[in-house]
């Protein structure tokens, strides 16, 4: 694990703008990127000439941008739409995120934004503020969270009939229908796309450390570097997802972060690696014992105790729950283990100084800010209460999972979240109300859809 770095969680400074524009004289526009409750990137393009004003006084945008469902429709029950007159909030740039967006054809930059009320208070529905509050709580205890994000995703394209298929190799033209986990040949074949992605990542300052072919045709995994600034680590995950989508589109492909895009193939997860450091940067989870320090065990105890209440965050969509299948590399229980990928909470092997927990439950479709906030809050919950996680699972964790350990249906997870004091504390009651309003609306809309499967099963039988 790297030592905690100087924080970059503040707002951008006006004096940063002239130097950036001087380095990039061809930049014509800047994309202002705001992350909503679902993790969807929303915002607007502004002209180069407006960048200084953005850094000086912010940019007013409709606060309802944080009250949209995943289809982009307003959710009045969030309290962010008509009841407040679709009022403005102020978007301010996040320090260290202004960078060239190399995948855009028009010379452009992008910058992450975070929302505030007009009186300067953090907007209750902005997920980045949720994570910031949890980080502050840990820091108040003398603990700095050290975080890394690991993302799985598919690179897809449509065939002649419009069906989604794994993308053909950029060099060979071969679609590659076989499982090719860790296959270097597949990476080589996709190298024109991934070389461009790595170049885009460098322009954004992203610490892309590992790229591999995953356990399905067209599926890949990227690991970003551990950061002693949790907000920066998650900002980088958000920027990475946007970059890979943009680069894939330039190659005629679709970067897909759905939890389960194919019924008979592996789902995609977002694994969060987390530890805690003291004020001198020493890893408080470090120990000679493979299971880590007592503090790490208490943190895992807290994660086990809270994960069921937080499933709506880790699995926020209807599709999310299709990922949880035995023997699928997606955990189905709040189990923990050492050097064991069949559990939900894994302590990886490695030198004693690197001890940490890998949270393997979230899908790649989850909002990274909320996942990090809830994982860190769960760790704090266990540390404050001295919770014992129990003995680690050995061997096949799927065979030792307890039925009902986790809510594996969307409606059940929303009900658990609604009654959770832990989640209200971790997210903030105001944010939780917004999140649940959005998710309930989506659940209702999705449940009302009549699909082709309805006709296949019920046309001649009902």
Please describe the topology of this protein.
Elements: H1 16-23, E1 29-35, E2 41-47, H2 51-57, E3 59-62, E4 88-93, E5 99-100, E6 108-116, H3 127-140, E7 144-158, E8 164-166, H4 184-189, H5 191-204, E9 208-213, E10 219-224, H6 230-250, E11 254-256, E12 270-277, H7 294-306, H8 311-314, E13 336-338, E14 345-347, E15 357-359, H9 368-385, H10 410-418, H11 421-427, H12 429-448, H13 452-458
Parallel strand pairs: 1-6, 13-14
Antiparallel strand pairs: 1-2, 3-4, 4-6, 5-6, 7-8, 7-10, 7-11, 7-12, 9-10, 12-15, 14-15
Helix pairs in contact: 3-9, 5-6, 7-9, 9-11, 10-12, 11-12
What brief labels describe this structure?
alpha+beta; globular; about 20% strand; disordered N terminus; about 450 residues; single chain; six-stranded mixed sheet
């Amino acid at each position: 694990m790297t030592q905690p770095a100087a924080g970059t969680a503040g707002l951008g400074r006006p004096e940063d703008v002239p130097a950036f524009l001087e380095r990039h004289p061809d930049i014509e526009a800047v994309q202002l990127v705001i992350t909503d409750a679902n993790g969807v990137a929303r915002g607007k393009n502004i002209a180069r000439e407006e960048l200084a004003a953005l850094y000086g006084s912010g940019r007013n945008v409709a606060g309802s941008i944080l009250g949209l469902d995943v289809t982009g429709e307003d959710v009045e029950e969030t309290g962010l739409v008509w009841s407040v007159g679709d009022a403005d909030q102020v978007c301010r740039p996040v320090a260290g995120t202004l960078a060239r967006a190399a995948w855009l054809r028009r010379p452009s930059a992008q910058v992450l934004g975070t929302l505030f009320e007009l009186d300067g208070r953090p907007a209750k529905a902005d997920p980045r503020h949720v994570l910031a509050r949890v980080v502050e709580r840990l820091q108040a205890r003398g603990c700095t969270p050290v975080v890394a994000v690991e993302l799985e995703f598919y690179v897809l394209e449509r065939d002649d009939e419009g069906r989604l298929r794994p993308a053909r190799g950029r060099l060979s033209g071969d679609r590659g229908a076989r499982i090719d986990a860790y296959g270097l040949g597949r990476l080589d074949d996709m190298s024109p796309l991934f070389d461009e992605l790595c170049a885009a990542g460098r322009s954004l300052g992203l610490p892309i450390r590992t790229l591999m072919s995953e356990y399905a045709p067209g599926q890949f995994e990227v690991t970003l570097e551990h950061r002693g600034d949790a907000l920066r680590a998650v900002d980088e995950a958000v920027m990475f997802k946007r970059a890979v989508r943009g680069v894939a589109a330039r190659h005629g492909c679709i970067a897909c972060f759905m939890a389960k895009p194919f019924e008979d193939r592996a789902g995609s997860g977002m694994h969060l690696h987390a530890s805690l450091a003291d004020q001198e940067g020493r890893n408080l989870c470090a120990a000679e014992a493979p299971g880590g320090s007592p503090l790490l065990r208490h943190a895992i105890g807290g994660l086990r105790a809270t994960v069921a209440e937080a499933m709506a965050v880790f699995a926020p969509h209807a599709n999310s729950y299709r990922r949880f299948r035995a023997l699928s590399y997606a955990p189905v229980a709040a189990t923990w283990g050492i050097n064991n990928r069949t559990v939900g909470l894994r302590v990886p092997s490695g030198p004693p100084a690197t001890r940490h927990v890998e949270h393997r439950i979230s899908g790649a479709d989850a909002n990274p800010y909320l996942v990090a906030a809830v994982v860190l809050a769960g760790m704090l919950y266990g540390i404050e209460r001295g919770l014992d996680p129990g003995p680690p699972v050995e061997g096949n964790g799927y065979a030792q999972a307890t039925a009902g350990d986790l809510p594996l249906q969307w409606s059940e997870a929303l009900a658990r979240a609604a009654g959770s004091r832990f989640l209200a504390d971790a997210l903030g009651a105001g944010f939780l109300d917004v999140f649940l309003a959005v998710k309930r609306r989506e659940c209702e809309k999705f449940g009302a859809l009549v699909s082709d499967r309805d006709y296949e099963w019920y046309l001649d039988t009902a």
